[in-house]
Each structure stands twice: as structure tokens, then as C-alpha cells.
Design goal:
Mean pLDDT: 86
Helix content: 40-55%
Strand content: 5-15%
Largest sheet: 7 strands, parallel
Number of strands: 7
Strand order of the largest sheet: 6-5-4-3-2-1-7
Order of helices and strands: HEHEHEEHHEHEHHHHEHH
Oligomer: single chain
Shape: globular
Length: 311
Amino acid sequence: MDRIKKIIRLLPVGMKAARRIINGKEIGFSFNLADRCPLGCNCYWRSMSRVPELNERQVIEFFQEKKKEGLLLATIVGGEPYVRSKLLGKIAGILPLTWVVTSGTVPFLSLKKTLHVISVDGKDPETHDRLRRSPGLFNRILKNLENANRDFKNFPAIIHVVLNKANFKQIGSILEFWGNSALVDGVTFSFHTPTKGSGDEHLILNLNEKEQAIGELFARKKEYGKFLYLAPAMIRSLHPSVTQKYSWENCPTVKWVQSFNASGKKLLPCNFSENADCRSCGCIINLSLANIIKCLPDFQTLHVTARAYVM
């Protein structure tokens, strides 16, 4: 019954999103709430120059202005957004829909209209903690999720795994672990996007490895169904034959999602900045936007994407 009520409540949001897409207007934005992170892993954010952060009042006004502009989805990233946890609680819910992308380093909050997207990069502590350069992090994420599920009536959350050379053979084990845990609503996967200056060369998948991972995702989709948060069209969009056509000019994320750093300055072309290799992009946002907008009606992709808002 609660889900039905939420679907009814979000129907006007979906209609507004459709109108904005038809009129060629952006539907959301990403914002680096913090230009800080407690981890030392290799990621796109570490390849960017550090910037001063907007203060609390400025951030709240920034989000309120985006709401006035008619944007519908705020994706709060970083750095690590939970570095500014008190502020996080004040801005989540300003827009109709919010995603918080976090490494799960500290206890979670119950946030309004928010889906937590928790970054986990391996099937076990050995893989994840090594990639994140943070001993004990995997078990800390588990503890934080256990506490959130115990303390909050509803805690919508999915696991996001960026596949790279260290973990692309662990897809089945990752799905098995989190499926058995009963702590999250599903698992989604993307590919590591190479970025200049991040020191990530050792993580980049070659063509054969990407094809292996795509084949495994298709196989596991049959086994795990909706728990694997990717529609078939989204999995196909990970293939290099698709991504090699990407550029600033035709990227769906660039067209439909604004990206801003912690000082409120617009990032071009997207949150990965100009350092990203667009032709090797594995971004999870592209997987849904490209197929919804170019391939309507792709009902499976629409269903996967909608579930992220009505949990």
C-alpha cells in the first residue's frame, strides 16, 4: 500500500520529467556536496583540482534555485557527501527526488525522498578494502546498513559496483552476497571510466574483459531478475561498440543532467570533468538516460529506473 501511494504521488513528477525531455530541457543535476573524502582510492574525483566549498546557506539556496528552475532530481555526490552530514539532512528532499552516492563510511541518515546509492567494489573485504585503500570499510558498510534497517522504518538503498580489472569476475558472488544479506533493494553495475591524472591505468578493462562482464551480467539477469538493477538494453549499452560513439556533443548525461563542483561551478562535460575518456565511458547514468530517451518505449529500462524512485 505504501508503494502504491508513492507511485501515485510521483506520477506528476514523471509527467513533468516527460514534458521537460520533450521540450529539450534538463531533468536533474549532480552536485559535489563536499570536496573532501576520507578514502584514498583511485577515482575520477581525485583527478580534479580541489575547490572551496559553498557554505551551508549557499548550498541550501543553490538547491532551492534548482527547484525553481524546474529540475526534478538531485544526485548528491563528492568527495563524500556524508562529510557534511548535517547539511545533507537539510538539502535532501528539497527537490522531488534525491540520490545520495556514498562510500558508506559513517552511519546513514534517514533522508526525505532519498535513495542511497552505496559504492561497493568487491565481493568481500579483501577486494573492496584494497581498492578503496581503507581497511575495515567493507564490514563498516555492513554494520551501517544493519543499523539503518533496524532503526528506520524505510531505508531505500542499492549497491553500486564499478567493474574493473580487480573485480569484473566477481559479479555472481557480489549478487549472491547482497541478495542473501536482505539489507538492500538491489545491485547495479557500471564500468570503470578512465580519467587522466587519477592513476587508474591498472583498473581499465580491455575489450575482451568487458565482453566477459557483459555476458555475465546477461546470465545473472536471468537468475536474479529485478534485484539486478539493469535492464537488458542498459547492459548492452556498456559495450564498447556503443560507448566508442560517445562525445561531449551526443552524451545523454551532458544533455539532460547538469553537473556542479563543490563551489557551485558547472563541470564540463559532466561530473567526470574534462579528464574523462568519453569513448570508454561506463557511467550508470548514461545507461538509463540513453535508452529511455532514444529507445522509447523501452519499458524494461523505464521499469528499472522508476523502481529507483518508488522504493
